[in-house]
Structures are given as C-alpha cells and as structure tokens.
Records
---
Amino acid sequence: MTTTTAATTIPFFPPDLFEDDRDLLLDTVREIATDPAQRFILGERTARFEELLRTDLGAGDVIACGSGTTALTLILRATGITAGDEVIVPAFGCAPLANTVLGVGATPVFADIDPHTLVMDPDAAEALITPRTKALMPAHMFSVMADMPRLRALATRHGLRLIEDSAVAQGAVLDGRPAGTWGDAGVFSFVQVKSFGGPGEGGVVVTSDPELARTVRMLRNHGQDGTHRFRHHLVGLNSRFDEILAAFQLRRHPGLAARLARRAEIATHYTRHFTPLATRGILPPPPGTDGRCYYVYTLLAERRDDLHRHLAAHHVDGHVYYPQPLPHQPAFAHAAAPDGHWPNAERAARQCLSLPVYPHLTDAEVERITTAVLTFPT
Ligand SMILES: *Cc1c(COP(=O)(O)O)cnc(C)c1O
C-alpha cells in the first residue's frame, strides 16, 4: 500500500503563532492568579511594560490601554477634537481610522494614497485642509511607514495635530526615529496578528507631550488621576491593560527584534525575486529597509483574484486586506465627500494581495511561496 502526502497549505494566519510560548503563557496565568496582590489590571507589570517601551523608544511617556483602537480614541479625546472638527485620514486602511474620528463626533476627511507605498499622500492631504481641520492622522501600512517628515512639516505649517497610527509598525525606524514617536502621539496594538501581537487585546499611546500623557492616563480609567480613587476629573472611558498580557509581553520583548529581522529577511527575499514581475502586472512593495515594518507583505497584482486562486492551488494562503476603500464603506460613506475620488485607494483595494511573512516560516516554506508567485502565468 502506498501513501501520498498531500502538500499542506501554508496558512496566512498561522494557528501555531504562540506554540513556543505556550508554557510561558500558562506560567504567566499561574503567576498572576496566585500572586497575593490579586491585581489583574493596571498593576506593577503594566507599569514595567510601559517603562520598557518608553525607554526602548526614547519617548516621554507610554500609556497602556485596552486596544489600538481605543488608543486612537484616547488621543483624539485628549486633544479635544470634537463635533465640527475635521481629521484628515487615508482613504485606504482599517476601520479605526474612520470610526474613532466619528466616535468623538468629528468628521474623517479621506485623502488618497500613494499608488505604490499605499500610505497617505501628503499632497492629497494638504489639498483637503480647511479652517475646520484639527489633525492629520496618517497610518503606517503593510510594509511602509507614512511620509512622516513631510506630514510633520505640513502639520506644523498649518498648526495641526499629528496623530500617528503606528498600530502595525512597532519596531520600524525612519531616519533614525522610531515609529510611534513622529506624531504628537502614536499608538501600538498588541492584538494577535500585529508585529508584537499577544494572546488578547491591548494597545498603548506613545507621546512626549506631558500634558497629553497626563490626560490620556486619566481618560483610560474613568477620568481618575491614579491617586484619588472615585474622584473623576474628566469624562473618561474604560480602556485599561491586563496584567497577564503585560507579564507575557515583558518576557517576549527581548525576542521582538529578531522576529522583526526575520520578517524583513523574508520580505527582502520576496522583493528580490518579484521585482522582475513588475512589467508583468505584479508589483512588489518598494525595496529598502528604512521606515519599513513587515507586519504584512503586500503585492499589487493587476489580476489579483486570479493570483489569489493560483496561490491556493499551490497550497499557499494569501489574504486580501481592505477590499473596499474607507469612503466606500456603508458605515463611513455618509462622511465622505459626495464628489470625492480616491483612484489610488480604489486601485489598491482591487489589487492588493498579502503573503505569509511570519517569522517562523521555514526557508523551504518561503521558497514554496516564492515559487508559487513566480509560476503565475502572466
Ligand atoms: C489593528 C489596527 C488598529 C487597531 O488596533 P486594535 O488593537 O485591533 O484595536 C488601528 N490601526 C491600524 C492601522 C491597525 O492595523
């Protein structure tokens, strides 16, 4: 009797992301469950985690909170952005870019993106500035940080806040300056799929503005100042941080740089092999290492759906992030300019296809993925 082994599909979302950390997770749960302090949120582990990230970034303050989304909300609230105000956001990206702005009563104004880097185009953003504009909120995308030097200059020239959605870019550095520290405030997310993802929900606000930091710290816990319990200085929200996640992330932080380096190594391999495909309708992200964050590796393919099916037939799982631009989403269309056009965002939504790039891919798997793309008939 003969047995044949069917090729197993390389998943896009690997179920074994935390396989090596399972004992650590169980130990962490036990440690906190049996700690006499019985403190499960905003305890000393959260404080140590905030301090570790603060020193790592050279930032003024890091405030841990419930998620990347609420981190954006806390910043918008702390900067006083409210009804009647406008915030310029990219037209292509994830829902929090629009719904956090709408959530504070303000209006998201959608700017088109650069056709290749897929991040907000500073010229498109500048053309949308009105007397009501209060902030620019660019987001770092799949592999490339937004053009922060130009956006910083633009914000300064027009007296706007710069809110950096760096949720996916932890560890990226542009011109020697880490992602998260370019804006008046930035954010990171620790949800499972992000580059420093963990087993649960969490985020941080990063800022070097002491007044903003103080306000965010109060807002995350019902407007209390951390000293006087049940004295509410501000109308806050519940966006606190879990001690189990803090302990887990504290112990995994030393391995982060190596995991990011492995992602970059895989991405460099892909780009080297895919660059010749540019004339055949498959465009890899721009090469280079400055201002890059290989949270996800995304191709632009003219025949995206055909490529997606071809990869599946070759046992490689691709993924389409954001098949619709934000201004076309049913929930956000009412906020979008009725005569608005976002041709680059629309093209990105039609053409983007992401490949697996997680650090524990083996070299053989990276080769299989590379070959699967290279054998696409163009
Ligand atoms: C994931 C993400 C967020 C939100 O983070 P959560 O922790 O999931 O709330 C915000 N912005 C971008 C660009 C993201 O990718």
---
Amino acid sequence: MKEVRFRSVAEVAQRLNPSYPVFLVFPDILRARAKAFLEGFPGTVLYAVKCNPDGHVLRALYAAGVRHFDTASLPEIAKINELFPDAHCYFNHPVKARGALESADDVYGIEHYVVDHISELNKVTEMVGTAITVEVRIATPKGHAVYDLSSKFGASHDDAVALLKDAHGRGCRTAIAFHVGSQCPDPLAFRVAMEAAAKIAGAAGVPVEYLDVGGGYPVTYGEAVPPIEAFFDVIRQARRDFALDMPLLAEPGRALAAEGCSVLAQVQLRKGDSLYINDGVYGCLAEIQLGELKPPVRAIAHPAGGGQERLAGPKKTFRLFGPTCDSLDLFKVHFELPEGIGEGDWIEFGSMGAYSIGMQTAFNGFYTDTVVQVDGLHDEFKFGRL
Ligand SMILES: *Cc1c(COP(=O)(O)O)cnc(C)c1O
C-alpha cells in the first residue's frame, strides 16, 4: 500500500479543501522526539499508548526504535501486538477486569502487571499465576502537574511495602512504579517520588527488578517548561543520591506524541469576535478545555477569498465555538488570529498529538476520521524547541 504523504499543511488544505477536521501527523517530528527520549533517558522507554493510539503515530515511534509499550486495556495490547509482533507490552492499569487478565496472559503472554491494592494482587495472581513481574504503583505527593493522578491511584508507603513482600512471598518478581501526573512542569517531582521509592524498596527488603518512573514530562503550550534534559538530569542525580541501582523504565506519552501532530479545523461562521469551527471540546481539541492549554495556532486562507496575504495583517483575540449544539462547546481559552479570518479559512492547532484523536467522541455526529501524514520538520510553523 502506497502511503499518501503531503509536503506541507498548505498543500493538505489546497488538495483536500476539507470542510471536516483533519488530523495531521508529522512522522519526522515524532521520530525526532522519540530518538531524543531514547538517547537521553537512562533506561528503557515505554510509550504510553493511551496518549495517542493512532496507527501512523505508533508506526513512527516504532520506526524510531520504541519497542516497549505501556498499555492499559486489552484493545491497546491487541493493537500493539498486531502492528508490532516483536514489541513488549506492560499491563500498567492498577484496576484490571478478570477477563482482560485472562486474555492478556493466554493470548498475549503479558508478564508485567501493575497493582496498588491487595485485592488487585489477589486477582492478578489468581488469573495469571505468579510467573510474572508485579509492579507496585506507589502514591506520589500532589505536585504541580496539570493532571494530578495521586488521588486516584497509588499505594501508601506501608501498603506498598506489604504488597512487595506479599508478591515476593508468592514467587512473583517485584518492581516499583509511579506517575507524577501529566504535564508536570517540575523535574523535582521525580526526585521526590524516587526518594519515596528508595525508602519503600529498603523497607520491603525484596529484590526490585526495575523502577518505573512513569510519564508526565511536559511540552510547551505557550508557557515555557524545562527542557526534557532537565528531567533526565534530575532522574540521574536522584538515582545516584538514593542508591537506586536497579534498571529504570519511563512511560512518556505527551513528550513523544504532542509536538508531532496538528488538528486542522475550518471556520464555518464568523460573528464579530466569535468563530464557529468544526472541532471542539468533544472532538480532537478536548484537551484545550480540560487542561486549559493554549497550543500554537495559525490561520490558512481559503483560496476562494484570495491568497494568504488576506490573513497577513494584525491579529486580534477571538472566542472559538465548537460544532455541537450545546452551550458547553466553547473554549475558555481565547486565541489570537488574523483580523481578516472568516468562513472557509482553516485554523491549524499545533502540538495536538497528545490526548486528542484518542479522546474525541462522536457526539452530535461530529467525528474526525481523516488522518494524513505531512513530511518534514514542519519548519513553516515552529513547534516547541525543534
Ligand atoms: C497516562 C499515563 C502515562 C503517560 O503520561 P504522559 O503525561 O502523557 O507522559 C504513563 N503512565 C501511566 C501509568 C499513565 O496513566
């Protein structure tokens, strides 16, 4: 099968003249991001599939050398297995259905399972036996992450120690995992969590096969965040300071996927400072609202209204409304766009690779199923630090 590749986003707009949202994938950017993480992180890199499960994205990351995947459901495991028979999946959801465990073991031979409670440990060993690695997910303090996960998952110090001893006693291999929360701007959150992990490992006194430091590495959406190397430096230093001599794993999602995709939406109506567009809070742009993120935007002129020069003038602030018929489908965050923008013009939302196409709904009949690939590092519209 010959893959269609476009040379630029302007070419996508020209050739498709899309009145529906288009999800744009930049495989070269995804490969660059994955390579930088694989080279910089002092351990094994698992891509967190939930962040963006699109096949084009997964193939680009695989092409860069990603062979390990953090999966949270049977469909995610199945997808990775079908695409990449030589890849390794880790079943890293702390709450798993019995049926999913059965198939994970029987069909896919999964060997790594996360738990954060004794009932889940009982369930896992009952369903898949003890020839596995039990990763105990530990709680991390509430930090500065945009999405704090500490209130949902994670065992306390004492519970984690008990779980590690118990799993070891049953004959399982044991490991420790944490997640500091997504879009975490503070490298020291990793140090704090690694210190907690070291104390738990010491108190449990069992062999720890690896320490999984999770995801959470941020990308910039307007506000500056520390570069990824700052996170790697803190992790390396903490590993020395707390004598964590077991191998490390990381589970980045956003840091690998975000900058390598855009959403191309079209303006369907303008009313003064309000633009009604064809993607919104129930679509691929959901995270703009959930995380109050402000991705970079640029306008692409519809050819019917003359050339791109029409949009070259000064910018003003617009309110953006999504396509569904309810009053919640408008963005709290406002965007600066050319004064001359109007019906038919497109808006490219950059850095939309994370929690976008995987989170959209089909509410009200609006659903994006057009995914196209664009070659190159997309230098006409600068993303992040590329
Ligand atoms: C969501 C998730 C990730 C990925 O998080 P990012 O913030 O996208 O890096 C990694 N591990 C687990 C367990 C997760 O739930």
